[in-house]
Amino acid sequence: MADSGSGSLTSSSATGSWLTRMSPRAFELLCIVMLGFGHLCIMTGCDSQAFILESVIHSIHEREPGRINSHAGYYGQATCYLAFVITCLVSPSFLYATSAKTTLFIASVCFTSFPLGFLYTNQYYYFFSAALNGVGFALYYTGNGGYLTSHSTRKTIESNVSISWAIGSSCMIVGAGIIALITYFTAGAGASSGAASLAIDIANATPNTTSQHFERRFSNTEIYLLFSVFAAISFIGNVTFLLMPSSDIDNCIESSKKIVAFRDGISLMYRAFRSPKMIILIPTFILTGVHTSFWVSIYPTTLTFNSHLASMIYLPAIYSLGVGLGETITGLLISFCSKRINNFGMRPTMFIGCFLTCLYCALIVVSTPPTAPQAPTSEKPLWFQPTRTLVFIIALIGGMSDCCLCSVRSVICALAMPTRRDQAFSVSKFYQSIGTCVIFFISPFLNIYYYTIGIPILCAIASFCFFFETRRIKRMEKSLTNMELDQQQQRKKSSKYETLDEEF
């Protein structure tokens, strides 16, 4: 198994011989596990900080109004996804010019740059690193798709996608531990002493009062420690991607050894955008983006902006833990079922994902103050206040639904355009990031009802389009199977004729 860049799997002959002795499936799993672990490292900071970013920025703004805008958390993420949109147009060409492994490493470095900015918050570096983070997103998911297809067969792609996603999604569990530990040492001591007086203040507030003083705040020490740890773990991801094997497996879906000029890569990207196969899937991709913005940042922000929950300082950690467990458990379940049920990773997973997304929205709309996504508030929810248990359940369902939607997105892109998979992955991320970017730009003006009504409607539209495309794929695969059977029969007949010819 030779490395495409240096002619060996690693520079160490001992390591190379060890890898060579592995069975093909074991080597395949090693590559997928390392890909998932690298994902875990870089996303521990990225996803965990997204849960608290708007609240952290708001805390900094309250102490120093001139340093950064109060809604820079939302706008920074919008900038990130805007850069993501633009980079998606050229990321496949970048992949062709380098390799999946190199693309993943460069992307991971972009991710590491973002948390470093919080060691001394500066508005200019913040937005620059947010844009760089967006570049990293586009390169990462293109490299991730390329690495998956060059280290998976048609039989293992659904399982490998789920394994990689399940390992990577454990980042939320790791992030929950980090947030809880740092919160305990920096904010936990004073939480109980101030809880009683805080409850009295909130009780005296009018229902429609918007408060700037009762919400959960993050101290400078807490911010420094959180983002320092996020940067350190992201650096481990840099090293992981640098050490990953890069040689393809036998019978992989698509080889990583492509020789495509940059101009030709742009042309392929343009043709992918025009393809009816991608156009019909646009609602599915946008659903993934809108749902991502909601569960990653907007709903977690409501937990810290709701003044009635100000004494529950561990809610971000509880939410992160719930999402991480939901993602991991669902990824493993999809992998298990995909091995036993044909095409489970497509229609069944999409249906489960949309159902869970609607349930997620229903629980949120009855337990969240309407204006909580926009600013600190003491408004009352529609029915009841969220408890720690309810937040954990909501997070668990949110993680499960996200894993389903992201899994079907990866599988459908790998199968819908067999000759242009890299472009298909980039097109999917392009539309996903457009959905996320738009939501983050307008989120300071939207109450909770826009999300909890709009997302289920989008689920219905996306499901219809997705089912239509999967039916076309099934017909295509059936036709290819029939062609292969016909060719086998022709070869058998030809062999019989040759035998008869020799006898007579």
From TrEMBL:
The keyword Transmembrane helix applies. Residues 484-504 are annotated as: Disordered. Pfam families: UNC-93. Keywords: Membrane, Transmembrane, Transmembrane helix. The keyword Cytoplasm does not apply. It is found in: Membrane. Its main location: membrane. GO terms for cellular component: membrane. Residues 495-504 have a biased composition (Basic and acidic residues). It is a multi-pass membrane protein. The chain crosses the membrane at residues 29-52, 72-90, 102-118, 124-142, 163-185, 223-244, 278-298, 318-337, 349-369, 389-412, 424-442, 448-468. SUPFAM superfamilies: MFS general substrate transporter. Belongs to the unc-93 family. PANTHER family: ET TRANSLATION PRODUCT-RELATED (PTHR23294), UNC93-LIKE PROTEIN (PTHR23294:SF50). This is Membrane transporter. It comes from Caenorhabditis briggsae.
